[in-house]
Amino acid sequence: MNDTTSPCRWGILGAATIARKNWQAIRRSGNGIIRAVASRDAARAEQWISENQADCPFAERPVAVGGYDELLARDDIDAVYIPLPTGLRKEWVIKAARAGKHVLSEKPCGAEAEDVEEMIAACREAGVQFMDGVMFMHSDRLPALRAVLDDGESVGQIRRLATQFSFLADEDFLTGGNIRVHSDLEPLGCLGDLGWYNIRFALWMMKSEMPESVTGRTISQTSEGVPTEFSGELIFATGPTVSFYCSFLTDHQEWAHISGTKGSIELRDFVIPFFGNETEFNLSRPEFTAIGCNFRVERHDTRMAVPEYSDSHETAPETKLFRRFADLVISGQTDDYWPQIALQTQQVMDACLISARKGGEAVTLS
User: Fold this and answer.
1) Lowest CB count within 10 Å: 3, 187, 225, 274, which one?
2) To the nearest 10°, the Cα dihedral for 212, 117, 1, 313?
3) Is 245 helix (H, G, I), strand (E, B) or coil?
4) Strand, coil or helix: 78
5) Would you kindly state where each structural domain of the chain is located, as residue ranges?
6) pLDDT tens-place string over residues 31-72
């Protein structure tokens, strides 16, 4: 697509819940429109479109399509958003690429790295963009955070990153009421659904440097072996270490803490920003003094924020994700950074899972 005056024309494969948020993101992007939505049942797609149109309407109502192949065959679709379960994703990403459609995929991108390599190869061969749907990567907070990390004074040399992303699932969810505990649809469980973000944030912080070795531990799992609680440790040759925890069994938390030789940074909402019109992080540089019997730690915190709505707005991260993707499609250019960082995330996640299956044995990455 090289007509820079025309919007990116989207198709959606599947009527997943997360796609409702991204319907709105496309609507607010300013450079995208939804042409069609496919489901295995056209009536279900029609109902889903009606519900979203009532909440956030497009001027031209998207068409309901009964079948994913039928949508991919349409000539009025430039790009597809694929929120299908992980177990089905590889097939449809490759089919979409071969149909000449640019691909925005939900995460985890595949059941294993070999799947993602095949997806990326198909997209590269077809000359289409591949990107995963990690919204926080498109937030204006990250460039602000990078500037502080790189100034050499605020944090100093980075030594440690710790993150947690979790939510408390109900009994119905855990006993099979949600696909995220189905071994055939989402075999990676909480590691794929939540740990993907922990690992991606670490790779972003390390400027895409891969860890030298990793260890992982499945703390709890379903009877089918789907992780419901997982922890991991990443060791980097340049010095920093990373720990992460992800879980369906702990109350909602999504914090990240970066420790350096001169200070530390805290983000309390690194994945989904807290509701509001700013995204923020906190720089802490406490001072300890001991004079005689008096021992004192003084707090020296600096709140840093950027004007950016958390959700449902033109400035929200999910809107910027779809706007950035559409910009690439409209320009006719592709950006290799996005498939590469997705593959790296999958490779690290795979290594963590291999380690867990070997009782926590360290796994070396080349």
Assistant:
1) 3
2) -50
3) strand
4) coil
5) 8-134, 137-317+345-364
6) 999 999 999 989 999 999 999 999 999 999 999 999 999 999
